[in-house]
User: Fold these one by one.
Assistant:
Number 1:
Amino acid sequence: MTADHPLAQYYARRAGEYERIYTKPERQDDLRQLEDWVADFGRDQRVLELACGTGWWTAVLAPVAKAVTAVDLNPEVLEVARAKSLPGVEWCCRDVYASEPIPGSFTAGMAGFWWSHVPRRKLPGFLVMVHRQLEPGARVLFLDNRYVSGSSTPISRTDSDGNTYQTRTLADGTEHEVLKNFPTAQELTALLSPLADQLRVRELTHYWCVDYRVGQRAGGQPS
Ligand SMILES: C[S@@+](CC[C@H](N)C(=O)[O-])C[C@H]1O[C@@H](n2cnc3c(N)ncnc32)[C@H](O)[C@@H]1O
């Protein structure tokens, strides 16, 4: 994917208004729970955070982690993130699908609200790429939205692979079709079980969160 991909362009244009999504009143209790889970996850780890955006979750990780490398394709969102002046964070502008390894050695990997944007067919390969970036037995956490009628943007269409899409409107009035999948706990378990040890799937009203250790057959480095 390159910076001219529609998903990347959408998030570049949304950079200044992105964090409004974290102010939805009905989601606040769940967000506080997620923040606790992410802080527990990142404590004393060297974390690779993928698609970090404006650094909402980086700000949760930075005070507890040994170090964080936070990666995003868009300079526009990284500028918002850098302005937070988080200690111990290295910001890195690059594509999560790029084949070159991200410099560093990582005991943990996480991504917030990124899984939902990965086409279903690409997920297995994406997971292998993530696991290869991490030390053997590293911990991994993904969190993302559950579809909640009345709170989530309605699904506008479903393609032949089962990917779902939303039509989103930015503050400037532009409309963008965005791939946004809402996997069930069963789908997450089925995909991750062969790759993961100590897999845990947790669901809140508005969000899901999975965490696990990279298993020996997960596409990571040999232990
Ligand atoms: C839903 S936002 C998530 C941001 C942040 N993780 C959060 O939870 O607040 C998705 C992010 O993915 C970034 N992105 C889109 N395509 C990317 C790619 N190919 N590689 C890296 N980041 C990408 C966008 O710039 C955007 O910041």
Note: Helices lie at 6-14, 28-42, 58-61, 75-82, 123-132, 185-192.
Number 2:
Amino acid sequence: MIIEEQCGIIYEVEMFKDGGKVYIRIPFNAKELFNKPKGNIYVKGTINTISYRNKLISKGNGVQIMLINKKMQKMLGYDDTNMKVKLTVTEDNNISEEEVIQTLIEDSNVDVLSAISTRRSIREYTEQNITDEELNTILNAGFCAPSAKNKRPCNFIVVKNKTLLMELGKTNINGKMIINANCCIVVCGDKILEGIKELLIADCAASTQNMLLAAHGLGIGAVWCGILQNSDWKKQISRQFKLPEGIIPIAIIALGYPNEIKIVEKRFDASKVHKEIW
Ligand SMILES: Cc1cc2nc3c(=O)[nH]c(=O)nc-3n(C[C@H](O)[C@H](O)[C@H](O)COP(=O)(O)O)c2cc1C
């Protein structure tokens, strides 16, 4: 049912649950209406008079849906049953990179403790592409990591090129999943910014772990590949990416939508917890 109003069209639509997440189906073909056959479509409007900005998810055959994050669900009083709401929707052409990252952060329904305890290394990937917005959200997590004296010596190289991924993966048996990854991030440390090697490695490790968790929060699979400092692989990476003097590769994160299901193990180990003294 459509109710026309002066401020635009108000659609009556249903919020529905699918795979634990809550969505609204856009009641028209947004690709056609906004004349955008390719690329991401960002929209803005209101749901029951509450303003939103969002990105549409294409489900094929002209169907687009949008994810309703937990904050919005709460504001709408969503109670886990299919609920009718009033929706206005227009294209949002002025969304900045930071706003896109913020939208993805808010859309991620995973709380930090669940993300930490359900993350596993994922080494098999589907063909689904990771979007630039998702990549930026992952990189943002890397930049948000703590670093000694807040020197932030980590730099990241994003690699999507299939030939480069193949070259990286084929020369290290432990890194062969990179060949079929959708992309990877080479985590590099700046020795000039952080002169103490142990701290440089610790800073890059903190960034790497943050990015693994961010990927997991977005439903993207990832695995950390260590780079031994006196290995041929390290030399190859430095050469392949033309790393300047003083920039050392410390880890590679292979990324892709998961094509394997990993059991979440309980790992709390009381025998390794020592109280007041070993
Ligand atoms: C410093 C470090 C280096 C790692 N290097 C590799 C690697 O070269 N190849 C790989 O497949 N996994 C690598 N991993 C991932 C570990 O194998 C994985 O974290 C571990 O088996 C536990 O599994 P989980 O991540 O699913 O919890 C590395 C992890 C860390 C922390």
Note: The chain has eight helices and twelve strands.
Number 3:
Amino acid sequence: MLIASLKPRTMGGTTNTGLLAYALARAGHPVTCYDADESLQLAAWARDVDDFPCKVYEADTPAFAETVYSTMDHSRINLVDAGHAENHPDIVDSVLEVADLAIVTVSPTKPDYDRLTRPERGTPLAKLIKRSAALRDSGQPPTTVVLLNRCQASSASPAKYAELLRSGGETGAEPRWVVLTTRIPRREGIASAVGALCDKPERRAPYDTLVTELAQMGHLPGLQSTS
Ligand SMILES: Nc1ncnc2c1ncn2[C@@H]1O[C@H](COP(=O)(O)OP(=O)(O)O)[C@@H](O)[C@H]1O
Ligand SMILES: [Mg+2]
């Protein structure tokens, strides 16, 4: 399968992609990553760190669907970190053409909510997702979930923005999103994760919860029994 990690602008997407890959691998899933962001930070993370869980292939091309997807081992969980959708809609279009699941990272703040739902410039991510249906074999957009990142435990903002996203904004007229109950906390240990060792408790726990939630929702393949 292919999971796409998306965001409209910088939101913690690469952090989430790498630590999700780490959690999936520790849960026993065969994982391969693709870096479709021209900054290539995920690829550099894998290159520089001993405990990064898998290979990362450079894949920052608007021909992702044709030239990268066709090379994948589809029995594995393939995880692609896409760049900012605001700046690289062509690459995100191509990723959405073939992804089975899209995880959209959003921070629960007004500027980041606005950049997701009504950017001053560029195409809203919801529109990219919707229009991908025209290019997909199923004729439907990929299943899409929102993962809130940089959540302050004591703040009311995560619950507020989760509700706005679920209910189509203040008017109910905007796109409605499925928001995961897993929230990635705002933590220094996570802030400094990209390019650093994965094996730290604060870099494991929220992403283990994320893997459990995705599995419970039926979004992950079953694990092969080893017995
Ligand atoms: N859970 C978190 N808590 C605090 N800071 C975070 C967290 N996740 C990411 N960050 C910070 O957010 C910034 C963007 O993260 P990054 O993963 O590079 O985002 P993107 O790939 O979306 O551009 C970085 O400065 C990183 O340190
Ligand atoms: Mg990034």
Note: The mean pLDDT is 96.
